[in-house]
Design goal:
Blueprint: E1 2-12, H1 16-27, E2 32-36, H2 43-47, H3 50-68, H4 83-107, E3 111-114, E4 116-121, E5 124-128, E6 134-144, E7 148-150, E8 163-164, E9 178-182, H5 186-197, E10 201-205, H6 217-229, E11 232-235, E12 240-245, E13 250-254, E14 259-262, E15 264-267, E16 271-273, E17 306-308, H7 319-335, E18 347-349, E19 355-359, H8 362-367, E20 372-378, H9 383-388, E21 393-400, E22 406-413, H10 416-427, H11 437-441, H12 451-465
Helix pairs in contact: 1-7, 3-4, 3-5
The structure holds flavin-adenine dinucleotide (FAD) and nicotinamide-adenine-dinucleotide.
């Protein structure tokens, strides 16, 4: 075994959390090593999660848009589009991402170790590489950024070629005509929309009473309506009792007594933190039942100089937040000063159409008895939406009736994930700069989707004047 000493920080996992921490620490003058078990950097985010799913969605949206365009409609039949052709394009995006990210490590002189990281004890991490070599890295600090993987209950046969999770769906070699999506969380809703966009018959099975119940109810209802309109059947408050797969398809038996049959099943019901086989017990650490670690406000675990960031610490489990957690944690290690917290994280859900929100929902404001009002803009009335043919959607601004401070932004429709940032920037201003008047008094480009802010703000101001 080769011994490599003198490291300031050894990071396990090169997803957004680990990468951001590595770059921040290296720029702060620390000697940093990164251990990654996959043969390329980027994490599950780049290879199995965010990047491939968003690249796929983009392809599906192109197909959907072609059907709306009279000039292109006859050229593409969504039902003839092959899943593997769409996946190929995602592969190109992944390659570009890996290239850019590998370069970050080279430029910032972060040493990459390819292999499985295992914590042997305080300040000692072993790397087992794929060809049987071993290194022992001695370090002042360890950062666990090992991410998460799809949760697999023991009674579902994930080795069967017709049962997929969000990783293996990227290798699906056939294009089903109908599919069961089990789990209507973010992943289930995003994939459900892609499948309906390709003309598949989709059964979306939800364990809860509403779709994405953390969203503003009006937005969640709009998504349900739209998914049904596109041909999905949504079944709420259902749990599986058995999943039986054969050569031709999958039968899902529900506890309610229903039986659903389809060509394939996509399981997307939760994720587990990657803490197994990592040696955390050698530090006296224990993960919770979902494989996640607890950390304090410095992202430090219960073991001294051992930190954790990203999906492995649970909420919010987003690439967006993971980058910031990694950066802030590394900054804290470098300076020893106070550590910034990741707060007010926007949601960006890439359903078709997309959903994005930041701040409080109507339900939350009502519960806490805040006197609020609503300003709305419907996309069907905006010039930009009419030009692009993307008429479905709305922007909703929630604001305080008396101070006019913006309390929440909720958007459903074309460009929702971009549009939300305009409102977020205003909302983050301290009083009195956080005000609805900003949108009334500021000239925006025209015709744009951002114009929705002016329309919604004027609508809101008119309501409080009534
Ligand atoms: C289908 C899907 C779509 C998503 N879409 C979005 C989205 O649109 N927007 C968004 O913000 N988030 C999205 N997410 C969530 C996002 O991908 C995660 O929050 C993010 O990847 C977490 O980053 P991370 O750095 O914690 O870990 P990961 O990206 O999970 O990377 C962890 C890395 O650690 C490595 N590793 C694990 N154990 C070891 C070990 N012992 N030794 C060495 N290496 C190890 C793994 O190989 C992996 O490369 C999506 C997730 C999924 C599954
Ligand atoms: N656009 C985006 O931001 C985006 C897109 C896709 C995925 N994601 C991330 O991916 C994850 C979504 O996962 P999902 O849609 O599969 O489900 P989910 O997190 O919504 O969970 C679905 C159900 O599974 C249960 N569950 C979750 N983890 C479990 C575990 N380890 N053991 C047992 N039960 C568990 C939950 O209680 C819930 O009832 C979230 O962390 C989300 O942040 C984000």
């Amino acid at each position: 075994m080769d011994i490599s000493s003198g490291w300031d920080l050894v990071i396990i996992g090169s997803g957004p959390a680990g990468e951001a921490a590595a770059m921040q620490a290296a720029k702060g003058g620390l000697r940093v090593a990164m251990i990654e078990s996959q043969n390329r950097v980027g994490g599950n985010c780049t290879h199995w999660g965010t990047i491939p799913s968003k690249a796929l969605r983009h392809q599906v949206r192109q197909v959907i848009r072609s059907q709306r365009n009279p000039l292109l409609r006859g050229l593409i039949n969504p039902r003839q589009v092959q899943w593997q052709d769409l996946i190929r394009r995602s592969g190109e995006v992944i390659d570009s991402q890996v290239q850019v990210r590998t370069d970050f490590y080279i430029r910032n002189r972060v040493r990459l170790f390819s292999g499985l990281g295992y914590i042997q004890g305080p300040g000692e991490v072993r790397v087992d590489d794929p060809v049987g070599r071993q290194w022992l890295l001695r370090t002042r600090n360890i950062l666990i950024a090992t991410g998460s993987r799809p949760y697999h209950p023991a009674d579902v046969d994930f080795d069967h070629p017709r049962i997929y999770d969000s990783d293996t769906i990227l290798n699906m070699a056939h294009t089903p005509r109908n599919i069961i999506v089990y789990g209507a969380g973010v992943i289930g809703c995003e994939y459900g929309c892609m499948f309906t966009g390709l003309g598949m018959r989709v059964d979306l099975v939800n364990n809860r009473q509403h779709l994405l119940d953390f969203l503003d109810t009006e937005i969640s209802d709009a998504l349900s309506y739209h998914l049904r309109d596109e041909g999905a059947t949504i079944r709420h408050s259902e749990e599986y009792s058995r999943i039986i797969a054969d050569d031709d398809g999958v039968t899902l038996e529900l506890r309610s007594g229903k039986r659903l049959r389809a060509d394939a099943l996509l399981w997307c019901n939760g994720r587990s933190g990657n803490t197994q086989d990592l040696g955390i017990e050698n530090l006296g650490l224990e993960a919770n039942s979902r494989g996640q670690l607890s950390v304090d406000e410095r992202y430090c675990t219960a073991a001294e100089n051992v930190y954790a960031v990203g999906d492995v610490v649970g909420w919010p489990s987003l690439a967006s937040a993971s980058y910031d957690q990694g950066r802030f944690c590394a900054e804290g290690i470098v300076t020893g000063g106070p550590v910034k917290q990741v707060e007010n994280v926007p949601t960006g859900i890439y359903t078709i159409p997309g959903i994005s929100s930041v701040g409080q929902t109507e339900q939350e404001l009502t519960e806490s008895k805040v006197p609020y009002e609503v300003g709305q803009a419907f996309f069907k009335n905006l010039a930009r939406a009419q030009i692009t043919g993307e008429r479905v959607g709305m922007l909703k601004i929630l604001f305080h009736r008396e101070t006019l401070a913006v309390l929440g932004i909720h958007c459903f429709g074309y460009q929702a994930m971009e549009i939300v940032h305009v409102g977020q920037a205003v909302m983050r201003q301290p009083a009195p700069n956080n005000t609805l008047h900003y949108f009334v008094d500021t000239t925006f480009n025209y015709p744009t989707m951002a114009e929705a802010y002016r329309v919604a703000a004027i609508n809101g101001v008119n309501r409080v004047r009534r």
